[in-house]
Amino acid sequence: MFEYIKPSGLTFPTLVKRTSTTTIVLHHSGTTSATLKSMHEYHLSKGMNGLAYNIVVYKDGTVYWGRGLDIVGGHTSDTKVNKVSVGICAIGNFETETMGDVQKDMLSRVIIDLLAYYPSIKVIEGHKQVTSTDCPGKNFPLAQMIALQNGSISTGGSNTGGNTGSSGSSDLLKEGQSGAKITQLQSQLKSIGYSLGEVDGIFGPKTKAAVVAFQKAMGVETDGIVGPITIGALNQVIAKPTLKDRSKGFAVRQLQNLLTKRGFSLGAVDGIFGPKTEAAVKKFQTASKIGIDGIVGVQTWGALYK
Ligand SMILES: [Zn+2]
To answer: Is CATH 1.10.101.10 the classification given to domain 250-304?
Structure first.
């Protein structure tokens, strides 16, 4: 899932494993340019345990591990928060700069993937919501990143649909391409109910139509190009995570769409598992003669895709 994140190559004095993960804390470097190494050395010089962040997102969309995925960070002055959070730093001074689309898309991808990896994450917040600081800066797309928790993407006026890749167009899947990545995309879309004809490894008009339909269902920009956000949403949906009261995200959107399609109405498809969704799940479970607990696990997912 995190194969696009590069190792830091840094040496840390000590690393402590995190045992609980409930929060994502977002930071900026506060400088126009910085590198892993410069931040690592700066944090060491301050008597800290080296680079304080778990993950760092560069302006060109390159993503690096800092301390690592499941390590306690040192990114806020509140050790209680550090113990339960993943700290992500975006390089830049967003008090004065505006974040470019490439960096914004990859930051979104990282957050979407973390939400899928840690269903226990309940809070996405800026550093300034934890401690008195300007970090991550007034121009940081904080509201947009927080909204990812509901599986809601607003591209904030940009027209890229979250589909600017980390190192340019080579990371995007789009019409006209072929190969193993397209085969994988096609089988994944098929496995979650999108018909696109034969799985042939060729991104033709039918595959594009399926991608657009998926993007529409997920509430992301419908450009038919598979970039970081679309891949992130797809990963969340194909993971078929256990969903219950107060779950959020793209998998909930998928659940809501599937229930609606089968005639179990639940109001708006909003990516939030509330009382109406729970009631619809129970009705579906009753109709399918499976255990009625209002929780969507392996059995209920199986019945929904039947
Ligand atoms: Zn910060």
So the answer is: yes
